[in-house]
Amino acid sequence: MSVQVGQTAPDFTLFDSDKNKVTLSDFKGKDNVLLLFFPQAFTGVCTNELCGVRDDIARYNNSGVTVLGISVDSVFTLAKFKAEQGYNFPLLSDFNKEVSNAYGCLYESFTDMNMKGVSKRSAFLIDKQGVVQYAEILASAGDAPNFEAIHTKMAGLGV
User: Fold this and answer.
1) How far apart are CA 2 and CA 156, in angstroms?
2) Considering the domain boundaries, does residue 2 fall inside one?
3) Alpha helices in 63-133 (DSSP H)
């Protein structure tokens, strides 16, 4: 079952591409958080989506929103991806697929290569109290989240 608007966001601790632990509940009372789950590093749609966020990071920062990208890629793959693309927000490794599963955004089978357990492209906006204010899980990995709707919701959260 996927996480819904109005629910408390499932807490987690994952390693980022610099091998630092990042815990969602550490942002509680401080920042709103946008979780962006993406299927795989170095793929076209994922790169375009995250580059768009990178290029618009001031909007997130000015809205008091911390962006966290999450995939099942290893920390080593994410480090290379982040460095090559110049991402200015953390990329977290859900290598064990526990967080993607907790949020209900895990493919049972992905692509014609039959990859098991890849994150579905998803977006969850979580307020400072830890409550989900926006949730979108895309059926097709070729689609991007509705950033216009996310930005509208962000504006209503306040800094």
Assistant:
1) 23
2) no
3) 75-85, 98-102
CATH number, domain of 98, equals 3.40.30.10
pLDDT at 141: 83
**What Rg do the C-alpha atoms of the chain give, in angstroms?**
14
105 tagged catalytic: no
4 in any annotated domain: no
pLDDT at site 108: 78
Structurally, how many domains does the chain consist of? 1
Nearest by Cα to 14 from 94, 90, 74: 94
Write down the catalytic residue from 9, 24, 36, 46.
46
DSSP secondary structure letter of residue 91: E
Mean pLDDT for each 10-residue chunk of the chain (159 residues)? Answer: 92 98 97 96 90 96 96 97 97 97 86 76 97 94 93 87
